[in-house]
Design goal:
The chain is mainly alpha-helical and about 100 residues long. The chain has one domain. It contains 4 helices and no strands. Helix 2 runs antiparallel to helix 3. The N and C termini lie far apart (about 60 Å).
Length: about 100
Amino acid sequence: MSRRRIIKIILPADLESLSTRQLLARLKALWQCEDSFALSDRGFVSEADGIVFKDSQEWQSAFEDLKAILAIREHVPRRTEREALRKERAKHKRNQ
C-alpha cells in the first residue's frame, strides 16, 4: 500500500502568506501525488481528506493556484545558475 501523504487543501489567499520555499515544497508534493485512483493501490480515500490524486479537480485547482502565485514571486537562481554567475564574476575579476 502506498504511503504518500495527503496534501491539505489551502485557499489561494493563504498561499500568498507562505514563503517561496514553502510554495516550492508544496509544488513538489503535488507532483508526487498518484496519477489516479484507478492506478493506485490505495483503498477507499475520502475527498474530505485532502488532495491525493492528480486527476482530481482539487489537484488541478491547487496546482493552478500555486503556479499563479509562484509566477509573481522573485526568481531564485538554481545552484547551477549561481555557480555560473560566480565563475563569470571570478573570470571578470582576473581580467581586470
